[in-house]
């Protein structure tokens, strides 16, 4: 059984087959037979787990297992504590209401790498970093949540899955490391 942690770079699609205009996982991972346990959109970056074990893949990805995924979202504007409370309660996205989650302000330190290309900079509009800890993971969920409360996401980084943290793993974009599938990393953080 194989389990890998990858710091998926911005712009990489979450598939191994080649793409005409974007990097794929095959550009970063040379271990045969592994597949992503969950997905990150091409414009999202950060911690992605890959495995060759279907049961482990399901335990990581399926919401019924309630494994927490932590995201740092750099949003346009200056949300308040009230906006964070609205995110934490769950947000009506039209086609579904998100589960309650943890939402808090975060101040990235030097451990967060620069994104290539950088996000757009607008001198008249501030940006704010929010950490969202969710147990779902529906298509573009975090981006849709922040937009629904009035603050579009400019940059989205998955920083944790369960007890795993991208910074403690020391992975830069494009780097991966093998993990023990039997370790207690999958406890709820």
Largest sheet: 9 strands, mixed
How far the N terminus sits from the C terminus, by CA atoms, comes to 23 Å
Average predicted confidence as pLDDT:
92
Order of H and E elements? EEEHEHEEHEEHE
The portion of residues forming beta strands comes to 25-35%
Strand segment count: 9
Low-pLDDT ranges: none
Query: At the first level of CATH, what is the class?
Result: Alpha Beta
Number of domains: 1
Helix content: 10-25%
CATH-defined superfamily = Pseudouridine synthase
Q: Decide which structural class fits the backbone.
A: alpha+beta
Give a verbal description of the structure.
The chain is α+β, with helices and mostly antiparallel strands and 189 residues long. It has one domain: Pseudouridine synthase (2-Layer Sandwich). It contains 4 helices and 9 strands, in the order E-E-E-H-E-H-E-E-H-E-E-H-E. The protein has helices spanning 54-61, 81-89, 141-148, 166-169, and strands spanning 3-8, 35-36, 45-51, 69-76, 102-105, 127-134, 153-161, 164-165, 176-179. Strands 1, 2, 3, 4, 5, 6, 7, 8 and 9 form a 9-stranded mixed β-sheet that branches. A hairpin with an 8-residue loop joins strand 2 (35-36) and strand 3 (45-51). The longest helix has 9 residues, at 81-89. The protein is globular, with a radius of gyration of 16 Å.
Structure characteristics:
alpha+beta; about 190 residues; globular
Summarize this, please?
The chain is α+β, with helices and mostly antiparallel strands and about 190 residues long.
């Amino acid at each position: 059984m194989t389990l890998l942690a990858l710091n998926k770079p911005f712009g990489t699609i979450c598939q191994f087959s080649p793409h005409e205009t974007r990097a794929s996982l095959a550009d970063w991972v040379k271990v045969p037979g592994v597949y992503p346990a969950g997905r990150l959109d091409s414009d999202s970056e950060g911690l992605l787990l890959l495995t060759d074990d279907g049961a482990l893949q399901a335990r990581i990805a399926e919401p019924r297992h309630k494994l927490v995924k932590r995201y740092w979202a750099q949003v346009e504007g200056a949300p308040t504590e009230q906006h964070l409370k609205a995110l934490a309660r769950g947000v009506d996205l039209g086609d579904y209401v998100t589960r309650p989650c943890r939402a808090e302000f975060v101040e990235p330190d030097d451990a967060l790498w620069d994104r290539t290309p950088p996000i757009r900079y607008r001198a008249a509009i501030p940006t704010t970093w929010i950490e969202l800890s969710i147990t779902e993971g529906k298509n573009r969920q975090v981006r849709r949540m922040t937009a629904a409360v009035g603050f579009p996401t400019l940059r989205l980084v998955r920083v944790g899955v369960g007890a795993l943290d991208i910074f403690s793993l020391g992975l830069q974009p494009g780097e991966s490391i093998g993990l023990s599938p039997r370790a207690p990393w999958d406890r709820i953080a």
